[in-house]
Specification:
Elements (H helix, E strand, L loop, with lengths): L3 H22 L14 E7 L2 E8 L2 H6 L11 E11 L12 E6 L5 E8 L20 E8 L12 E3 L6
């Protein structure tokens, strides 16, 4: 039975992501967050938590991130891809809700977590925005609603569905 759990989990992820992508292509997004133009969706699993996420690969997508959105559904988010690996700097410009940042290595391991990052006060000057970075180089950064990284720890393994598309 334990051998079948990874197969069942993968099957469920494929169905969920396939449904989300198919619905997104017909402009009937099943997710309440607003997908950016030309964004792709994938699934990210850490421990027993699975998130349906947009992929931010281009510089434009990375610069926009989740800024300007009113909300983010539970178990959804955005994954940022960095090639080559780097120590990126994030800020919360134009954010309206708090986030957790899960910093992920090239080997798909959680190497750092920044929890409960608050949105800035309205009209905060750019120079006054706090900046957030991991302790070492990462290939991926997972942004999710604040509190959803509870139960995720440094050293946890991460699975990204269809990493060949990243």
């Amino acid at each position: 039975m334990k051998r079948n759990i990874p197969i069942l989990t993968t099957f469920i992820l494929l169905v969920v992501v396939g449904f989300a992508v198919q619905r997104n292509q017909t402009n009937e997004s099943p997710l309440s967050f607003e997908a950016t133009t030309n964004s792709s969706l994938t699934a990210v699993t850490v421990n027993d938590k699975t998130f349906t996420v947009e992929i931010a690969q281009t510089e434009e997508q990375k610069a926009q991130g989740l800024s300007g959105r009113e909300t983010l559904d539970k178990n959804s988010g955005m994954i940022f891809v960095f090639v080559p690996t780097t120590i990126p700097t994030f800020w919360m410009r134009d954010m309206k809700f708090a986030l957790d940042f899960v910093w992920i290595s090239e080997n798909l391991e959680v190497i750092d977590i920044t929890r409960n990052v608050p949105p800035p006060e309205p009209n905060t000057p750019l120079a006054a925005l706090p900046q957030y970075s991991p302790k070492s180089e990462v290939k991926y950064v997972l942004e999710i609603n604040a509190g959803q990284a509870d139960g995720i720890s440094i050293g946890d393994r991460v699975t990204i569905l269809n990493t060949s598309a990243l």
